[in-house]
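Archive maintenance. Older records in this collection stored only the sequence; we are now back-filling the structure field for every entry so that each record is complete. The fields below show one back-filled record exactly as it appears after the update. Entries are processed alphabetically, and NADPH:quinone reductase is next in the queue.

ARCHIVE ENTRY
Title: NADPH:quinone reductase
Organism field: Acidihalobacter prosperus
Length field: 324
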Amino acid sequence: MSLAIRIHRHGGPEALTLDNVKVGAPGKGQVLLEQRAIGVNFIDVYHRTGLYPVTLPTTIGLEAAARVEAVGEGVVDWQPGDRVAYAGGPLGAYAQRRLMPAERLVRLPDEIDDRAAASMMLQGMTVQYLVRQTYRVSPGETVLWHAAAGGVGLIACQWLRALGATVIGTVGSDEKAALAKAHGCTHTINYRRENFVERVRELTDGLGVPVVYDSVGRDTFEGSLDCLQRRGLLVSFGNASGAVPPFSLGVLAQKGSLFVTRPNLAGYTAARDDLLQCAGELFEQVRAGTVRVATHHAYPLAEAAHAHRDLEARKTTGSIVLLP
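Back-filled structure field:
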């Protein structure tokens, strides 16, 4: 048996329940994991609320650091005691023990502890595909990053600084502005006091930026388009404020032949080779000290609802983990 946080209905944080669930022996191609630290991400909120529908009841969560407890038939790359991590699915991370497909695991370097790994896998690999694949940021470029003091944002600010880019980041408080700047954000915009479109135009001498990374969604979508230079790219990779409503493609032509994409980590790591490349580049950045990951908030597994309330209220900065 294993304690797990499950949802039996979609709803608010109160929909998260602590259940005892049966975990069987690993089947062919599977690994039984003893979870050590579990990442909390906004996509977990989307699954809980039903924005991203899931079959109920289910254990939510997509990211954790763990140790291998047992392996199933045909598994040759892993053995009991191995330290591993994963991000991106299948669902089921909010649990003490769980089964995982062996091919979705990556080996944790000795230098990276469990909490750091659970804090960085989904967020760090997200940054990798966003800045090295979706739009390959070059030295000297200026980018706009919404929610620069969030978990993904803090990793992105560090990585982009190392690439030689100028980062304009939006934040919701002076404290978050200071945190983002400490992690490499060049200019911060407090969206509660400033019009971020006007400030971006000021900071770029009216030109705008070639790329906007937007995980906020509904509240920032139109403004993000207005921050782009001609033929610029809006990378919409989240919906923290709600889903972007339907819009006319003609708007993109009117605003300067713009591009919009809606990528996700699963699409960039579906093949094992792509997963290993993405995680490997993240580990290289951490080993080199380019990216430093700190767990700013840790909650017992049983307090997952508390973690979700704080995340949705934007009371958190950086990464959040649950401890089984």
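Update note: The mean pLDDT is 96. The domain at 2-120+293-323 is CATH 3.90.180.10 (Quinone Oxidoreductase; Chain A, domain 1).
Entry marked complete.
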